[in-house]
Amino acid sequence: MVDKDLKNDYDRIELGEMVQVALLCTQFNPSHRPKMSEVLRMLEGDGLSEKWEQSQNIEPPRYHRSFENPPQRYADYIDESALVVEAMELSGPR
């Protein structure tokens, strides 16, 4: 994850924060992802812990919760397909 040329010459705390920001930016539901202005503030050290805590309380999509009891009929997957389309939409205008 870190450039090998850096060896151990990097701040591990900053690396952890960057990973958290990256994970926030890749949340399943685009509406849960931070805006770029929020990303910038988090990278500058403002608000990351609050945003991270909020993200930990978000319920995962239904079809990611459990693979122990998968749906038995095709119709059971129909509602789930809407979530996949939602994930492919961009988080906002570019």
UniProtKB/TrEMBL annotation:
Keyword Nucleotide-binding (UniProt): yes
Signal peptide extent: none
The keyword Nucleotidyltransferase is annotated on this UniProt entry: no
Gene Ontology terms for molecular function: ATP binding; kinase activity
Record key words, sorted: ATP-binding, Kinase, Nucleotide-binding, Transferase
InterPro entries, per database record: CR_Ser/Thr_kinase (IPR052059), Kinase-like_dom_sf (IPR011009)
Cross-referenced PANTHER family: CYSTEINE-RICH RECEPTOR-LIKE PROTEIN KINASE 3
Protein name per Swiss-Prot or TrEMBL: Protein nsp-interacting kinase 2
Lineage: Eukaryota, Viridiplantae, Streptophyta, Embryophyta, Tracheophyta
